[in-house]
Design the sequence.
């Protein structure tokens, strides 16, 4: 980073005193750090915002949240106007972070945006494809009990973040999703077929309760399809990978 003319300022979001050096320095802020793994609030986001406000405030702040804040929508199509109904402590922590961002946006920051992000994937990202799940033989739900899944390629997310810094409207939430319209099982079947891997077994939701981890089940208990018109109409982003299969098919070209 230093060789590229960048000066790193190291801080620990769990130690607010280490963030003081950021005050008065940052003008355009991208905050992508996750909340702690426990609790229902996000003290990390609060600590960062308080530090940034000690002197002159940044011109813009972009916070990376999650589409999990919408909770279960029973497979319905939704956009950013959907009321937030977080169902897990993980999502509740994200709502708390969003609340802090909006609070500061109403009291000084000229522009704050919240990016609501689904599953991030990329071939060169650790855990960024379902390959390991397929190789382990992790089962999926039967079609009649399955849930919809939403995605964004890491490269498209990075491009959306940059555009949000310069084009985002004040106090705006933006869904950063591609155009994939698939249930989880169909997605896994399609990837398995494309990569010549075994198809996952289909099981009932009752069977899944005993075979899958609580973390995996927390995702299988929520179903929604995300509309992302603001991403294209307001930020002007043209997705490089319009669907998750477009992004994963790059494997066959490499």
Sequence:
């Amino acid at each position: 980073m230093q060789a590229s003319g960048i000066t790193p300022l190291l801080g620990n979001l769990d130690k607010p005193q280490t963030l003081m050096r950021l005050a008065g320095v940052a003008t355009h802020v991208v905050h992508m750090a996750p909340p702690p793994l426990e609790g229902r609030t996000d003290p990390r986001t609060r600590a960062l915002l308080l530090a940034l406000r000690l002197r002159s405030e940044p011109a813009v702040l972009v916070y990376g949240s999650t589409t999990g804040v919408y909770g279960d929508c029973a497979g319905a199509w939704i956009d950013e106007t959907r009321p937030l109904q977080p169902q897990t402590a993980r999502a509740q922590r994200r709502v708390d972070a969003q609340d802090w961002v909006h609070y500061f946006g109403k009291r000084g920051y000229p522009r704050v945006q919240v990016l609501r992000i689904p599953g991030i994937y990329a071939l060169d990202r650790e855990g960024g494809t379902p390959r390991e799940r397929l190789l382990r033989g992790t089962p999926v739900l039967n079609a009649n009990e399955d849930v919809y899944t939403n995605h964004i390629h890491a490269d498209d997310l990075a491009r959306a973040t940059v555009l949000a810094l310069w084009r985002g409207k004040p106090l705006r939430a933006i869904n950063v999703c591609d155009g994939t319209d698939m249930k989880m099982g169909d997605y896994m079947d399609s990837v398995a077929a494309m990569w010549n891997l075994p198809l996952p077994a289909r099981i009932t939701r009752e069977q899944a309760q005993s075979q899958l981890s609580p973390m995996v089940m927390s995702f299988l208990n929520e179903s929604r399809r995300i509309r992302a018109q603001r991403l294209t109409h307001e930020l002007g982003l043209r997705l490089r990978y319009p669907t998750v299969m477009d992004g994963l098919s790059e494997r066959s070209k490499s």
About this structure: The chain is about 30% helix and 15% strand.
